[in-house]
Queue: 2 jobs
Job 1
Amino acid sequence: MGQYRWESDLAKAPVIETKDLTIRFGGNVAVNTVNLQFEEYSLKSIIGPNGAGKTTLFNLISGQYKPTSGQVIFDGQDITGLDPATRTKLGIGRSFQLTNIFSTLSVLENVRLALQSKADVGMVFWRHWRSYFKLEDQAYELLKQVLLEDRWADEANTLTHGEKRKLEIAILLGLDPKVLLLDEPTAGMSIEEVPAILKIIQNIKAARKRTILLVEHKFDMIMNVSDSIAVLKDGRLICDDVPEAVSCNPEVMEAYLGGGMKYG
Amino acid sequence: MTTEMTPVQRERFQAQQAFFKRPSFLIQVALVIGLILVPLVPSFRVMDMMAKIMIFSIVVASYDLILGYTGLLSFAHAMFFGIGAYSMALLCYHLGSPQWHHLILATIVALAMSVVLALILAFFSLRTKAIFFAMLSLALADFFHILGRSWRNLTLGEDGVTFSLPGILNVQGQGFSLFGLNISPRTMTYYLVLVVSVALFIFLVRFVGSPVGRVLQAIRDNEQRSTALGFKTFPHQIYSIVFGSSISSMGGILFALWLRYVDPESVLGVFSMVDYLLMVIIGGLGTMYGSIIGAAFFITVQTWLPDLLRGIAANFPDYEIIQRMADRWMAYFGVMFVVVILVFPKGIVGTVQKIIRRRRMASFK
Ligand SMILES: Nc1ncnc2c1ncn2[C@@H]1O[C@H](COP(=O)(O)OP(=O)(O)OP(=O)(O)O)[C@@H](O)[C@H]1O
Ligand SMILES: [Mg+2]
């Protein structure tokens, strides 16, 4: 393992750890014996060519997929057997690469639901949802952060693709998990929309209260924000180091150029 | 507060302030007053129709909770209705002369059976695929239908059970006089149906308006997303099925009270599910209030359309084709149903609500 910028954090146990994590789809090993540690309050990017297994790795960490073998450890606890809802409650929240929102509900309601989950009132049936009015106001504030407040009253399926991506981020911010899994948060956004999202990510990182796992193709962005970068290729971890070391690693550059990775 | 209100706050502020002035609230008050005055109409047929509309409104509303809000297709809703109806009928019939505590006992038995059966249904089917829920509910419903027909010692089979009610609900009794008006036992039963239906309806509306109701809609919209938000699908679905089914059985209790007669075909028949589906779709899935419109439409047409057609036919005794056409009231109902759905694709209430909501929200941009 290379050296991290946050030397003082090295002593701490990682907040998330994968141990020989492997998943097989038929003959295709999408994630192959991956051992990764995610230091608390750091930002680790995961890069790799298309089909390298980045999204699949996220699905394994957040519980959408169960591994063929290996383990996922969260806060020292083996969570491999837990379902996605339980993992979210523990503090692992994610955004999806393929936009995944509540399309028949209003934009505000999409975010409000995340806040409701965080507030833990999802099983209350004797009070009116509007009596938790703080949740609505907080949801509106989050929409402001992602520059989506003008659309708050609209049904989510009327949003443009870029707006849906922003809503996806707002939902994750509403959930405010200990660990944020961001799967290509800016993909599909127009150039003008990217800086606001980048700023949000940088702010969360700067506060050092949350751990961020970021999948992105925009290389300069990754070089800028990451504490460390893990590189996947064909399901295998080929490198995990600080940005400078990764960018001059010949194997990575070979995967990068040879593997047809997109440039942001 | 000196800071300017956000559009969200303005919208909420207006919604809360105007609650008692809102047309929907006034319509509901007018509706309840209208229902209270129904017994003044000197026609038993009208009162009978209104009582049935009330009963089926809550049955269909509870079905809307399961189908419209939760997205689960249950074929056992009529079975729960039948369980309520039979609990009432059998307890009053078998326990000797009717007593008030039989009514309470019947309610407890019906609710207990509904909760247990709903839990069994959910635990055995929901963990797997949604289609198993539909299939198991159908099998269970069919089983109870057969049970109702063939366990003759208990249910009297196809003949059905005729029973009488205690005290002022007993139609053999005299009733009493209030402010110079004679309140018959029938009228008393009508008011009992009114009070219970309104209470259950309010409960259902509150339930879907609670945080749980919101989560149910989220799960129906996108189950994967809602689990990724930390909402567990299974406990929420259990909530919905248990409450929905129990309320259906309460509807069955009211139905039995009103008719003082139950038989397997009318309260346990799986084909009643088609009626429920028609009613909930006419009104609008996932709207709650739609069930009132759906039930009113369906039962009114069912009550008057055959008469209307017969009346028309009587005027044309020489035209055989008209005579034949007049016999097929269900066919005309089918045509009306199709027309309603073409005009109101989300059901009557669903479509109107959508238009109103869109207008209202546009003013808060
Ligand atoms: N549910 C599945 N069933 C079968 N194969 C799958 C499944 N999910 C992923 N895969 C396969 O796993 C491999 C890795 O896919 P994954 O989506 O993780 O790649 P990725 O690194 O996220 O790529 P991209 O940059 O395009 O998002 C691919 O070959 C894909 O076809
Ligand atoms: Mg991917």
Job 2
Amino acid sequence: MGDILNVSHLTKRFSGLVAVDDLSLTVKERQIHTLIGPNGAGKSTTINLITGVLKGDTGTITFAGKDISDMPTHKIAQLGLGRTFQNIKLFGAMSVIENLMVGAHKNTSQGIVNFLWNTKRAKDEEEKMRAHAEQVLKQIDMYSHKDDMVNELPYGLRKMTELGRTLMIDPKMILLDEPAAGLNPSERQEFIQHLKDVYDSGIDLFLIEHNMDVVMSISHYITVINFGAKIAEGEPKEVVNNPEVIKAYLGSRFKAE
Amino acid sequence: MKSRKNIIGIVCLIVAVILPWLFNSTYYLSLFGQTLINIIIVFGLNFITGLTRNMNLGTAGIMAVGAYTSALLSTRLGISPWIGLAAAILVGFLIGRGLGYPSLRISGVYLSLTTIAFGEIVRLVLNNTTSVTGGAQGLTNVPVFSIFGFQIQRGIPFYYFLLLFMLLMFWISTRIVRSKWGRAFKAISDNPDAAESLGIDIAKIKILAFTLAAIYAALGGALYGNLMGYLNPSTFNFDFSINFVIMLMIGGIGIVRGNIIGAIVVTMLPELLRFLGDYYQLVFYTIAFIGAIKLPQGWPAGIVSLVKWVARKTGSKSRKEG
Ligand SMILES: Nc1ncnc2c1ncn2[C@@H]1O[C@H](COP(=O)(O)OP(=O)(O)O)[C@@H](O)[C@H]1O
Ligand SMILES: [Mg+2]
């Protein structure tokens, strides 16, 4: 299996602060790769750099064999790199299904002029988008909420909507920034199951996660960063027994048996 | 609910069809015609200011360019007003592009100022190129349309022509708003970060919204020339641009049906308030201002929730009494 994502010597400074410090990591195809580290370690910044939201000071990033270091965010997404946000970012004025349908926009081909006169094709395209959204909503058990306004949904379902929306872009890979944060234990179990299903459907995952139960149950590979720099990486069992990781991050919070 | 909305729509349409026979005078028919044109222009503004939330205070300027393009072609070169209409679409397209690009770099107040500047430049140019546009004297003898050799005379025939045109634009606008385009317009203003993360090119969508708005305004301008038969730069002033934004706000931002109501209210209200004389502007802008603050969802939605509130109050009271 090749690499799907490659980050090489990535550095990002915010005025004085080095948020990401000469970070290199490789995500292999067909793996769930987790990034862990203390608060403020630079995890979200790393995802923002990969997705082009922030521009790195140095370093290169390749995704699916393409250099995306200088690409704008929407181009990167068009290559099939989806993401969710640490603070959920939904379209508040729209319903659940409309949120998902925005995710399908990039995969449609009809231009506005053709849309205006070829009403038949426009209708077909719209119906295809809707059918796709409905199928994804069924997959994530949210079909019964399809016409709810997202602002009126409870937190857990808003997170799920965001996952559904990024599935709509037909991603090769999804970056998830703390997907289980703020969920209660049963919601968390459900979310993990959905993530596993997403992974089984052929989509590679790269996630940031604090909850070590989640990390251990889902990850194939873990990278640990502290102060923006990588301090360890490897299989879950190796990583949690690494003294430096225990000192910097896990402390007494997690003991591997 | 849906069928009730359809019934209201059909009733409105019937009223619109018999209206010119009830108020059959040059004055009223011109007023109704202007209302229909304003409705079309607000449909366009709805894309850029309503859905993508970019303030456009240059609508009158765009309208003027459309109006003069069409009118100059027909009065100076004898070209059919139909071609003038097509030319207005073309200049609308170009203006939309031209105004869309700065909107990628500037936003908020600065973008508003840019659009104001555009409108003022247009007016100054029209005023000062006397040899072509007639300057402050204006342009007269703008012709009417012909279909199969029959002229669509000003008055009732042209009213119906404009009504059909408005309905066509209503249909187009509704389709756009309810499609992937409408969702993309809303998405880029609602949460641009999320929109980008889904592969949406914000620049492209924003320029599209500007272009649609400009095409609608230029078309409206061309029709305005045909309706009035004469053009004068002073018509297309800053107040006029502001009025379009007020129409949009009154009808409820982003709502196509609301656009119609907003345009009717703002175009007709001055006539209803005419008895106030010089105080009319004060009263009009006060009403619009209070509406903007108290009914941010627009008047129709505000009135609906008011009615519901009253119904709930009286309902609970009668329940208590009973
Ligand atoms: N846009 C920004 N401007 C300035 N500092 C930032 C910005 N984003 C993040 N930081 C800082 O960079 C560091 C890493 O932040 P972040 O990547 O959000 O950490 P986390 O690992 O908790 O996700 C923090 O010290 C944070 O305050
Ligand atoms: Mg974070």
